[in-house]
Amino acid sequence: MMFSPPSLSSRHLLIAALAILMLGLSACGIAAFTITEDSGVIEIEGRGGSLLGLGDVFPTRIPLSVNLEQELQAQDADGAKAVYLTDLTFGLESDSEEPNFDFIDEVTITIESTRDGSDLPAVELAWRDPAPEGATDFALEIEDGVNLKPYIEEGMRLSSDASGSAPEQTARFRVIADFRVEVL
Known about the structure:
By secondary structure, the protein is an alpha+beta fold. The chain has helices spanning 10-28, 68-74, 149-154; strands spanning 32-38, 42-44, 80-92, 104-113, 123-128, 137-139, 141-142, 156-164, 171-183. It has 3 helices and 9 strands.
């Protein structure tokens, strides 16, 4: 008499395959994580009806930086293969005298390397045109697929270019960025 093993249904095979796959993925560690960076408060002094354009008073540098090594250590990750900007939001502080961002018509953020003689090109990374009326916060459109890792490794600089008019009252706001880090 021959012994024949019990047959497994396709549902049981699928469950077993999923369990093996999940064990394999958990053994590999995380595949990606998110870093949130905050610029700190940026202040633009109110000009009370001045004819100055926003470009005359808007900061040309957005003070955001990423300490990639520190973030990788915190995540117990071996290294990063890529870093992408996933969100960039301007948000008014509760103590801002200016009630909204109506003084901004459009804004563009460019990334560039701080290393002298770098081969990395300056890239328009995020923009908003037009900025929304009456908003106390707004997100910029993000250029997909720009790997920021080489810029972070060389030292990155985020530059801004904005148009509009100087705010009537002092505007206090932050720029908050989310970066997705894909690990090795």
